[in-house]
Each structure stands twice: as C-alpha cells, then as structure tokens.
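Hi team,

Filling in the usual template for the complex we talked about on Friday. All components are listed, including any nucleic acid strands or ligand strings, so the model treats them as one assembly.

SUBMITTER: L.P.
PURPOSE: interface mapping
COMPONENTS: two
RESIDUES: 564
SEQUENCES:
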Amino acid sequence: MTARGSGPLGVFDSGLGGLTVVRALRLALPSEPIIYLGDTARVPYGTRSAETVVRYARGCARLLIDRGIKALVVACNTVSAVALELLRAELDLPVIGVVEPGARTAVRAVEGQLGGTRVPRIGVLGTAGTVASGAYPRAVAQISTRYEVVALAAPLLVPLVEEGWLEGEVPRLVVRRYVEPLIDAGASVLVLGCTHYPLLGHLIAEEAERLAGRPIPVVDSAAATADAVREWTLEDRIPTAPEGIAGLELLVTDRPQTFAAVASRFLGEDVPEVSLVDLSPG
Amino acid sequence: MTARGSGPLGVFDSGLGGLTVVRALRLALPSEPIIYLGDTARVPYGTRSAETVVRYARGCARLLIDRGIKALVVACNTVSAVALELLRAELDLPVIGVVEPGARTAVRAVEGQLGGTRVPRIGVLGTAGTVASGAYPRAVAQISTRYEVVALAAPLLVPLVEEGWLEGEVPRLVVRRYVEPLIDAGASVLVLGCTHYPLLGHLIAEEAERLAGRPIPVVDSAAATADAVREWTLEDRIPTAPEGIAGLELLVTDRPQTFAAVASRFLGEDVPEVSLVDLSPG
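RESULT (copied from the run log):
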C-alpha cells in the first residue's frame, strides 16, 4: 500500500446523484472520511460522447488525487461505463465504479428467480452514454453468461429528478414509457443505471409490478457499491481509517448554494458547507 | 466599419436550439454566409450560474472571432440574458442577442390588445438562468413601462425537445404545468424565452388558448432576431455580403454525428457537414 492510507475516500459524479453513493458509504463505513466532487458546471455527462466523458473524468480524478485521496469511487454510471478501465490503467490508486457492483446485485436477484419456464432477463435503465457503452451487458457476462441484459436509455428521468418532480401523473407516465419496453422484453429485475434514478425508485417499482403482474426487484447500485468498497477495505486493497465518525467535504464546479439546497434530499443528512472549485484545464 | 465586412455572421448557442435563429437568418438574409457554433460539450447553459455562463460565452465568442466573423448573434436566451452587455463591452464588433428582439415583438403583440378592461401582461417561459436574470422584465421596461412581465422557469421543456418527445399526453401535461400559472397570472402573450421551445410551440399555443378561452399569441424570438440583424445591415451597423446564396458552416464541441442527425429538424434544410472543435481553455 502507498502512503495514501490516511487520506479520505474520493467520490465523484457529474452532479448531485453520486451523493446516494456517499450516503451508502457513510452507513457502511462511518469512520472513513469522504471528499465528494460534483461537476455541476458540466452536468449531465450521460448525453456526451465517450471522448468528452473521459476528458471530464480525468479532470475530476486529478483534482481529488491532488487532495490526497487514498481510493477513488466513481459514483457516476456514465463514467463507470465508458472510462473505468482507462482510469484504473492511468491512476496509481484503487478505483471502484458503480456498474460492476450493480450488475452483481442484479445477477443475484435473477438467480433467486431461477426454476421458472424461462431464463430471467436483467433490465437496465440508464443514460444514453451508459446504454451505448454496453457496460452492463459486459459486466453481467463477466459474472455469468447465463443472463441476457436489455438496456434502455431514459433521458427524461434526470431532468424530472433535478426538477424535484417525483410524484403525480407526469413522472408516472414518463416512468411507464421507459419501464414498459423492458418488462415487455421479459426483464424480471430492473437495475437503476444512473445515480439520479433512486429518487424515482418507488414509481419505477410500482409501474414494473403493475405491468408484470408481480413484484420486480429494483437494484440501486449505491448500496452495492458501498459494499464493494467495504470488501476492498476488508481485503486490505484500501487502507482503513481509525475508528470514529469521519468528516465529509463537498466540492462542486458551479452553483454551490443550489447544490447545498437539494443535496440533503440525496444525502439523507444535514449538508456541510459546499465549496466551489475550478476544473478548467490549463 | 472594420475590415471584417467580408467575414460571415457568427451565431452561437449552447446546443442545437440556436439553429432556429440560423433558419430565420437564412430566410431574412440569404446572401449572408453564417458560421454556427453549438457548445454541445457543455449544454445546457440554462441551469448554470451567471459566472459560468459568462465564462462559456467568452469562449464561444473568442472561437468565432478567431474565424473572422463580422458580427456576433447570440442565439441563446440564457447568454443573451446574463452576458450580452458584457460581450458588447468586451468585443470590438456588433453583438445582437435574442432577448431584446423577442421583448419588442411581445410588446407589439400586447399593444394590439389594448382597449380591454385591464392592461395585458407579458408571459415568458425560459430557463432557470434566464428567469433569474430578470432580463425580459428589463428589456420590456426599456421599450415601455406600461407592461408587466411574468416569467417562469420551465426546465423540462429542453429535455423533452432533445428527446424528440413533442406529441402526446406527457408533453401536453408538462406544457400545461408551465403555461397555466402564466395564464392564471393574466398573461395575454407568451414569449418562448429559449430557442428549444418553438418545437413545442404548437402545444404551448393550444394549451394557452384552452386555458385562456381565447387565442394567445406565442412569440418565437428567432424571426424577431433575424429582423433585428437585417435592420442593422440596412443601417450599415453590420456590413453586407455580395448578392448570392451564401454558405453555412456548423461547428460543435461534442457529438457532431448526433447533432447532424437532429439539426435538420431545427434548421428546416439539409445539414452540411458538422465539424468538431475544442473549446477547452489553456
């Protein structure tokens, strides 16, 4: 292990959504200090090309590494989908993404359903970038070649969450539009392939159950990712911090006040001061 | 006038929407060559802070000026709302935005309605950034202090347009959510304060008429802005190009193929090759 053992865990996302991962990390590893970066000046990443996402991800990682983190948690599905292998190759520290843990949880969920007349399928809702990357089918295939993945881009879910429009006819109809083709295609578990989606998780579960005629498990990668980080600490792949309740530092690239105002909705705790940082290269 | 007389008109927006302004310019001034820049790597601007929008706008303007434009058309309501005066002060060429021309058209529309029992109000739908800036109330007040402006942020309209979801129950309900408070507040004209919105203009007009019980004029700034540019050429504030059908050059900062695929929907003509440019500073 490097001398980074005493640094915080670094977590980043394009915006707010990754705070659901921070929340899960603080439950799983309460004594680990965390520094979170939301790239709110360039959010969303999910509609951008892989080349641009890679460029933005490198900038976020560099800023956190300059602050002395001991491990990097990529709390963004789009970055995890298109840039994780590259970040792992380039960076000299442990890097964990959200796609692999989510895929593992989904496989466990469908394994529990075996015994019916046909092999269950794994449905994935994600951003255009995540779906185009094929990252979920790849991650599932690395765990088991038994299960087919059907993935669908759901571009209106992020704006609905950011607008805070989480109840009522419009969110329900939008969710239905995206869930219906997955259930029709035989999905018997749904992976929320974007850190914003858990805030619409109740509607997604309700619509899926209504359409399928039975409960459909809905996988939120946040908890699975926190479990993966804890496993890595238990395996000494990430050094652990001393016991105690650890601090949380929040950084954004734009609009710290707006971020602070809505962050508690994601984080489930009071939000510390949010600092503005500059990610412009050069 | 400067030696820039032979250069093209430079037009920029955060993404695709400004192409509606390009379309109007090509109808109004067919012999003017145009170079268009869509900052698709950082779209949308409407949710960002004024400081960030100013920084992005400077970068776009600099790139177009380096290409020898003779005048700059800011085809983005958010930039026009928060950065136009600053661009005018900093840049040594004519700069036209979309807010002033739209406000002028709206005032003309309500003037035509005078004579009723109360003074008509001007309703504006825009991005969070445009509404927060107060640019429309300011622009209207400069024309006449007689009219009050009610402005509302409509953050889901851009994602609906970018998704191409322009018909059916969901777009109608979303439009209704934003139009209803404006009609309730007494708006008797609606300004589409974002270049994306004209693609939902039919639904906005239908819902406004249904709610108001009479037709409500809907102002699209694109034509008004093209008229303003033509006026400036007639007044020799912008030098004119020789007669003939002029070229159109399209630049974007991300995903040129995606841009090309949907641009014709905005532009109303076949789209020339789209080039990728880099706006990273430094």
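MY TAKE: The domain at 3-97+223-276 of chain A is CATH 3.40.50.1860 (Rossmann fold). The beta strands of chain A are 9-13, 34-38, 71-74, 95-96, 121-126, 149-153, 187-193, 218-220, 248-252, 274-276.

Thanks, L.
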